[in-house]
Amino acid sequence: MTQRSVLALLFDEVQSLDVTGPVEVFAGAAVQAGDPGAYRIRTASLDGAPVRTSSGLTLVPDTALADGPAPHTLLVPGGRGTRNPDPRLTGWLRENAPRAERLVSVCTGALLLAGAGLLDGRRATTHWALSDHLARTYPAVEVDPDPIYVRDGNVATSAGVTAGIDLALALVEEDLGRDTALAVARHLVVFLRRPGNQAQFSAQLAAQTARRTPLREVQQWITEHPEDDLSVQALAGRALLSPRHFARAFHSETGTTPGRYVERVRLEHARRLLEDSADGIEEISRACGYGTPEAMRRAFVKTLGTPPAEYRRRFRAPVQPQPAH
């Protein structure tokens, strides 16, 4: 079996989970594949000295960046240390990162890649809170703030923190197959796998939580009953408000209209059912409030650019019991 070397970059104020999340995925994949050499994982700092993470943990690298050959996969994590990085780090990336066969960033690690000119002319993502900063600071980068990860050629960038695990699982699936990636996901008790184009936020997180109790209860009702009548009139009745007052208050307190919130909840629910259940398209369309498969198809094509059947084909993860290891 092909051995792929993985080098994780370390620096002061790195986000520890940006490093350990993907590393655990790659290490677990080697175990699940029955080949301890499937991935050869090493960590490196500028001078080989230990680094202190943003949470206060100390990580001891295997080597200095100047030592050793170029890796197959270079993992560039994020963290507070990416805001004002050591110029030597940016310089090393500019000179050496192009030699890696695969360049991967997690969270604000994209800022390091962009600072080294490695994202110029490429589509990329990062943590939602820094997307605008990345776009303003590096206008040559095509920043997409929504997906949990983006792949552009041999460069892959991911969103905040845990999205690095999703990206690592996708890479393992590409390298070693779906069964191995699925086994790793089950062992880590995470989903296999959130597709890269899935939004960083769920509908509930993307919208603000309303201050007033009746509006918060309506938000919860929408989430729990996507198949119900969720018209403004019906929702206003639940909140004991007039439709006009309800629509104005909902937008004011959540930052979105009732209609858009309902659309996002229904789409999110339909995606989960397509990925995780064996229900038919017609059954899912009814369960999510679309009424007909055609209505659901239009919603998917409009938002995701793909019909439900194709979405299921690409992203459905078969559910099979597997013992813990």
From TrEMBL:
Query: Carries keyword Membrane?
Result: no
Lineage runs: Bacteria, Bacillati, Actinomycetota, Actinomycetes, Kitasatosporales
For this protein, the record's Pfam families field holds:
DJ-1_PfpI, HTH_18
Top-rank taxon of the source lineage equals: Bacteria
* Ranges for domain HTH araC/xylS-type: 216-314
Q: What is this protein identified as?
A: GlxA family transcriptional regulator
Keywords carried by this UniProt record:
Transcription, Transcription regulation
InterPro entries documented for this protein: Class_I_gatase-like, DJ-1/PfpI, Homeodomain-like_sf, HTH_AraC, INH-QAR
- This chain's source organism reads Streptomyces enissocaesilis
**Record-linked SMART domains:** HTH_ARAC
